[in-house]
Specification:
Radius of gyration: 25 Å
Order of helices and strands: HHEHEHEHEEEEHHHHEEE
Distance between the termini: 79 Å
Number of strands: 10
Shape: globular
Structural class: alpha/beta
Helix content: 40-55%
Length: 297
């Protein structure tokens, strides 16, 4: 009788341990799958379709970096002697493109501030130029950004740990609101800056003012906003390059890549809508127009 009881107890213990082992294994698998879903989640086809519908020609960040590198290699750029500089918004959602480019060119020099404007100006360009490896070239990537959230809303993005999507780019949205009030004569055009407290945002709004009517006419102002901002930033960047290009030691060249970053929910690649891809010499003269390399296939 005792042996039977011991046998039953042993069997029960074995069964219990087996069940615990199954649950433990299942728990581990759930944890592993959750980790995989976080780092390699499925891309959202709705967001991808919306991106191409609103910004046709937009390229995934990883593809953009690869195409840029391939094009520049054909034109004499080498990884070891190329310095990457960016002028992208300081918003944390904008780092994916820099990370992809960093796989080819390493650490980057940052010129950008709110909304992606190159607030570092001529001084930052000159400093960057003096950091280029001897005999090398620079690659300058710049532009504003816009979000597309999981519901397909342009001008918003889903952020880590936030229940609802929010404005993206926040600085651009605030500037557009300012421009709208100025046009409605509810607010005055700002005079000369007297304090650095919020100088960058004041300038973003000021430089967007000339596009007020354009935004007012747009079918979708949120989608048009980054396009208007890009035109202002491109003009600004070209002035900086013209003023500082001589700081790049000959025969060094300046590759300019301008466009619009498109931020998407976690799991879907960010995109970039290329508007400019060209190479200039250290006199600021256009040498090559390479936009064909970035056309989406």
């Amino acid at each position: 009788m005792r042996s039977i009881l011991l046998s039953n107890v042993s069997a029960a213990r074995t069964l219990t341990l087996h069940n615990i082992s199954k649950k433990s294994t299942a728990g581990k698998m759930d944890s592993i799958m959750e980790t995989i879903r976080y780092y390699m989640p499925m891309e959202d086809p709705k967001v991808m379709a919306k991106t191409q519908a609103v910004y046709p020609g937009a390229v995934k960040s990883v593809d953009l970096a690869a195409r840029l590198n391939a094009a520049l290699v054909r034109h004499g750029y080498e990884k070891e002697s190329t310095l990457l500089a960016t002028s992208l918004c300081c918003d944390e959602v904008n780092r994916e493109l820099e990370q992809q480019l960093g796989k080819y060119y390493g650490d980057h020099f940052s010129m950008g501030g709110l909304a992606g404007f190159p607030f570092g100006g001529v001084t930052s360009f000159g400093a960057m130029a003096h950091h280029i490896p001897t005999g090398g070239n620079c690659l300058v990537v710049y532009g504003p950004h816009v979000g597309i959230d999981s519901d397909g809303n342009v001008g918003k993005v889903n952020r880590r740990g936030r229940e609802h999507s929010g404005a993206c780019c926040g600085s651009a949205t605030a500037a557009a609101g300012f421009v709208k009030k100025v046009m409605a004569k509810e607010e005055e055009t700002p005079g000369p800056l007297s304090s650095p407290l919020d100088a960058q945002q004041t300038w973003v709004g000021t430089m967007l003012l000339k596009h007020g009517a354009r935004l007012d006419r747009a079918d979708d102002p949120a989608a048009e906003l980054p396009l208007a901002l890009f035109d202002s930033q491109d003009e600004f960047m070209k002035k900086i390059v013209k003023a500082g290009c001589q700081e790049v030691a000959a025969p060094g060249r300046i590759a300019l890549v301008g466009g619009i970053q498109i931020n998407t929910p976690v799991g879907t690649s960010d995109y970039f809508l290329p508007k400019i891809f060209e190479i200039r010499n250290n006199k600021g003269e256009l040498q090559e127009n390479l936009m064909d390399y970035l056309v989406a296939e």
